[in-house]
Amino acid sequence: MEKHQLIIDATCDLIAENGLQATPISSVAKEAGCGAGTIYRYFETKEELIEAVYLSLMERFTSACLENLDRTASVREQLNTIWLNLYHYMREVPRDALLLDQLSVAPAISAALQERGKRDLKATIDPIFTRGRQEGLIKDIPDDVLGVFVYGGISTLLRTDRNAPCVVPTVVTDDMLLSICWGAIEKRD
Amino acid sequence: MEKHQLIIDATCDLIAENGLQATPISSVAKEAGCGAGTIYRYFETKEELIEAVYLSLMERFTSACLENLDRTASVREQLNTIWLNLYHYMREVPRDALLLDQLSVAPAISAALQERGKRDLKATIDPIFTRGRQEGLIKDIPDDVLGVFVYGGISTLLRTDRNAPCVVPTVVTDDMLLSICWGAIEKRD
Amino acid sequence: MEKHQLIIDATCDLIAENGLQATPISSVAKEAGCGAGTIYRYFETKEELIEAVYLSLMERFTSACLENLDRTASVREQLNTIWLNLYHYMREVPRDALLLDQLSVAPAISAALQERGKRDLKATIDPIFTRGRQEGLIKDIPDDVLGVFVYGGISTLLRTDRNAPCVVPTVVTDDMLLSICWGAIEKRD
Amino acid sequence: MEKHQLIIDATCDLIAENGLQATPISSVAKEAGCGAGTIYRYFETKEELIEAVYLSLMERFTSACLENLDRTASVREQLNTIWLNLYHYMREVPRDALLLDQLSVAPAISAALQERGKRDLKATIDPIFTRGRQEGLIKDIPDDVLGVFVYGGISTLLRTDRNAPCVVPTVVTDDMLLSICWGAIEKRD
DNA sequence: AATGAATGAGAATTCATTCAT
DNA sequence: TATGAATGAATTCTCATTCAT
């Protein structure tokens, strides 16, 4: 693998395991198998490295959420796919879930960068919501609000479970989760 | 005011504004109007100070959520009160919302402390959910799951809004919010 | 007891137990049952307190060495008394032995103060040595050298034993000790 | 010279001159001609540096005592060599004598480390004493007691002289010293 | 290009001393 | 007179960043 990516991966692992403030460049270098100076060939500052880590995380996150998405399927099926992808990804790759928690409060991650990290996902999801509203399927509330609410619900559920383990995964079936998510956005007459 | 509380308040402000890692004891001292050594009369370590900050935050958070709660009212009315309290509190006191974000990933905040911080709120909310389920009002899914989901939805909504300001508050009415929340937990035949 | 003496005693205990650098004024105050500020009524600085501690130690040391000394007895009997007093005192009051170790390297204890601390003891011992030499009993070497050598031997013996306990006290009888001491100073034809 | 040794040497000088507690890492750095952080590349803590300083001192001390020792010579000649080596070393290298005084009460120097520091010297001296006793030359008292007594006598003599200078060196000839030392351990019929 | 030793600014913490009460 | 809260200089130690090799 490229050294550039090797460094990013090492940083992901260490931040997820130890937290951002307990991850000095020197330990990244050790984990990546290179000298500390080498890291500065690829990233001008630690902040820039963190930004790269964030973008790499959001890429994985995005493609995990969109995996096996059938863009010709119904709105309901597409959202089901995305939500379950999200749910399973954060359950099965806690490293990335922890990483996201850490980075979401890091001063290095600006609002602009966050926007950029989410752009691709939004570009896919927004049209689905739009169509859903056209079909009279979802509430007359801005897409962002509904989408973010559901994302926040799912991710918070799993974060809570990580802190007090083993409650959610054994109890919450895929059907239950979808029932909650749809309840939140579905339009009722 | 007591110096003890003065220090806690100064710390709240600084962490909310600059983040936990950008809040050294020296700056807390300056903000609190005392010498750095003075802080160590009241808190043995910085970690202990952070713990006190967290507990003070959770107290405010809890009493804000339970404000004007009529414990004799219906399940629906009580949850409406709590959710709107939560929503308005986090919108109107962004300092505490930001603080909560920072502290939720702080190594100083152990799982046990988190449990303690949430205890009072849970002790009030859990019985409401229990009654709601007995009345056939809410889904047959553990209270924790539903409660955490809604909390996660609301708080994430507002966090997103803080990063890309002015979208939510002007658009999301109280009624919209409650419609989303109830949709997530309400049982439909 | 006088507060002045109470403070000195507390300091003795704490330095012997924890060492000089691990004995802050605040802990002396706690041990002496008074406020930290009170100590500064009796001693202008910590250094001055240490000096007082040293002098109080040397007083106890001196009177312990001279206990039951029969100034009309023979040179041999008098030195035997002093040496055994010294030996038993340092064995039975390890607090003072430890204290002496700590203070002997403290910057607060000047050469002049050391001289003052030892003055009374020297004033008694020197004439005995002088008489011993007149009687042809001891080597033609300055009193200081002989006296200090024997003192150094005994105190080092006990310090070593304190570090690697239980070797000396069970083995070295009073007769053995005197045989060593006298051997060191006694004149042989 | 190696930076590692440079730091140790600087520390030796400073502790001997100012005492252990008046030797902060910052001053060691200045004396060693490097940044404070550099010291922590070579020693994990200040305590570890002090330990290294102690071991380096004991190495010099040991080789000084054993210099020109003829292991085929008689017991008397060997002990004479060692005692005079010790005496001259501590007189001519007061820096190391002062250093030893400081370190002997340092909390950083554990009993185990002291044992390790003295091991080589003991390994050489003990057999000489054993042989001396077999030859009926020395008292029937444990080697440790006799050896430590003499060591304590010599070192205390020189310490006293350092505090009230110029008394001993001009007066105490090598012969006098040996007469005292042998007197202390020699068996008389 | 890669390294890792060196740097020094900045962090948490301690403690002798002061002073208002 | 006695107190102990308050102070801030000084200490140990960390770590992002640089640069000679």
UniProtKB/TrEMBL annotation, chains A, B, C, D:
<dbReference type="InterPro" id="IPR050109">
    <property type="entry name" value="HTH-type_TetR-like_transc_reg"/>
</dbReference>
<dbReference type="InterPro" id="IPR009057">
    <property type="entry name" value="Homeodomain-like_sf"/>
</dbReference>
<feature type="DNA-binding region" description="H-T-H motif">
    <location>
        <begin position="24"/>
        <end position="43"/>
    </location>
</feature>
<dbReference type="Pfam" id="PF00440">
    <property type="entry name" value="TetR_N"/>
</dbReference>
<dbReference type="InterPro" id="IPR001647">
    <property type="entry name" value="HTH_TetR"/>
</dbReference>
<dbReference type="InterPro" id="IPR054422">
    <property type="entry name" value="TetR-like_HI_0893_C"/>
</dbReference>
<protein>
    <submittedName>
        <fullName>TetR/AcrR family transcriptional regulator</fullName>
    </submittedName>
</protein>
<feature type="domain" description="HTH tetR-type">
    <location>
        <begin position="1"/>
        <end position="61"/>
    </location>
</feature>
<dbReference type="Pfam" id="PF22604">
    <property type="entry name" value="TetR_HI_0893_C"/>
</dbReference>
<keyword id="KW-0238">DNA-binding</keyword>
